[in-house]
Amino acid sequence: MRIDDVRKVIKETHAIFVALNIGRKSDLPWAKVTSPLDLLYTSMKNIIFAMNENGVKRVITVSAWGTGDSYKETNWIFKFLIKKTNVGVAYAGHEDQERVLRTSGLKWTSVRPVGLSSSEKQKQVRVSIKGDKKTKHDHQPKRCCPLYAGHC
User: Fold this and answer.
1) Residues 96 and 40 sit within 8 Å (Cβ to Cβ)
2) Per residue in 90-138, pLDDT tens?
3) CA angle 37, 67, 4 (to 5 degrees)
4) Which residues sit opposite 128 in a β-bridge?
5) Where would I find the beta strands (DSSP E) of the chain?
6) What is the pTM of this model?
7) Is the pLDDT at 145 greater than 60, yes or no?
8) Which one of 18, 23, 41, 134 is CB 3.0 to 4.6 Å from 35, fit for a cystine?
9) How confident is the model at residue 68 (pLDDT cuts 50, 70, 90)?
10) Longest Cα pair distance anywhere in the chain, in angstroms?
11) What distance in Å separates the CA atoms of residue 61 and residue 73, rounded to the nearest whole number?
12) What contacts 74, CB < 8 A, 6 or more positions away?
């Protein structure tokens, strides 16, 4: 995102919600990356700069489960996908995005969805907040999703 575009959007706002991700040609793990590799880093730097110019202090961003301190909660298959496929490009971008946020001095929250689904099937889900012990919750289709949230 270009800084001039970000400035226009941020003007006269109280908080920012960011839901960017790296693009790939398809959902297949080895699909070619189609967006700039530094998209999330550059966009977050521009967003923070424009926020500081406008006195905006709060940002919420969608990241991914397996980013940052939630990586240790992933299973070996997921770790393999992050380390050995182009899925890892997005994870590296989310890591960069969160690293920039941690040093920004802003109030921020990073929401790390485990998986988003439109399934109607009732399921039990586990919720982890800041890596705390997972608890079981009944899943209400289309009303909630499992999240990992970290913030400062």
Assistant:
1) yes
2) 999 999 999 999 999 999 999 888 765 666 776 666 666 666 655 554 4
3) 45
4) 148
5) 15-18, 58-62, 107-113, 124-129, 135-138, 147-151
6) 0.76
7) no
8) 23
9) confident
10) 46
11) 20
12) 65, 66, 82
Residue range 14-51, pLDDT digits in tens: 899 999 999 999 989 999 999 999 999 999 999 999 99
Q: Which amino acid is at 91?
A: Y
CA distance 108 to 102: 8
Asked if residue 146 lies in contact with residue 111, where contact means CB atoms within 8 angstroms, the answer is no
Rounded to the nearest 10°, the torsion over CA 11, 12, 14, 15 is: -20
Structure tokens at 101: 């946020």
Higher-confidence residue of 8 and 89: namely 89
